[in-house]
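Model the whole thing, not chain by chain.
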Amino acid sequence: MKDAQIIELFWQRDETALTEVENKYANYCFAIAWKILMSREDSEECVNDTWLAAWNTIPPKRPSILSSFLGRITRNLAISNLRKKYAAKRPDMHMTNMDNILREVEVLNQQAAHSLEHTESEEELVRLLNGFLETLKERDRDIFLRRYWHMDSMAELAERHNLSESAVKANLFRTRKKLEKIMRKEKYLK
Amino acid sequence: MKNDQFLFLDILGQIDDTFIEASSQPWKEEKAAIGESRSRTPHRGFLHIRCRWHIAAVVILLAAMSMAVLANDDIREGLLQLHLQFFSDNVTINSVQEDASQQNDSQEGETSDEEFRAYKWEEVPEGYQVVYEEENAEFGYYVIDFENDDGSFIHYMQNDASLFTTSITFDEEKGYKRRIKLTDELEAYSISDGRRNTIFYEKDGFLFEFMSDQPEETITEFIFMSGILEQGD
């Protein structure tokens, strides 16, 4: 079924919409949750919560890209779940990839926190990020988003782009530095 | 307010749908225009010599040949092996060809028979400006110099390793010489005469030199930021 038809089912409050998104996007959403949580049970719970959240937000929303809309919900739920695990100091032992990602974005976290504390709103930061992503070369953008949106491992990224892991690391380092520079220029950081 | 280690990831989660959709698709490799554009040119079997004031550290091997060699070292990362000779005040570098059969089989890495392609910086380091840039495909080199308002400099040079022999100033007492790992696979040499610090390595048949008055850690950061390491992969 086409996305537009599925969205229409949501708007009509037809519960077959849930079956349709399950059939079409369960694997996609599960993969997103899995990379963050690395737990089958938690990931499945996240995916089920995604359908519920979609049910509660469509209407009034009418997503332009259903896959992105659902993926975003899953990712937010998974990060929220992970945040609780970290807060309770019980992240799973096999979460080395997420640990590495969190280390990599430490400076960006500090910059974002600083700007939110002082002057800027989250919406403005998102706008800045969108503008920044527009300026990146297609490959650099893909590597950046696959790493920090989809939480791909270095090995997965290396395979996807036919690069060495070192080249991927260097690429990410450079992109992060560019973003840090832009954030400083935009006075998001003193 | 959310202010934790997930903050940036949270904000990134709100980017435009189009970015999410595009990155969710299988990656389609762009045409490797660089690789396809390489064409054969006549072999250039001679050394090329050039000088600039702040690459005074670069001199022709011949000038140093008469000096006593204190130590030798070889470093092999790419298809060419770099042969290093340590003198009292400089290190000379030249490439050592592999055995003949390997040379004949090799299609990549040796650049002397191929069109030169400059590995250029993808951005100017913050606070610096370009003060000199030169590319010479015929003789197989590319050089760019940056300076900032404080007079700090960065000198970057890429040479066809099979053609070029260089010497880098070195001071045993005031400086240092050591091997460092730039990446998991790429080893480099870090050399200092106490005032100028140089990191160099060989990759894809080219000799890359990054020289600056900045410390080794900063030069390493410049190398990563330049995007040079990713080029040619």
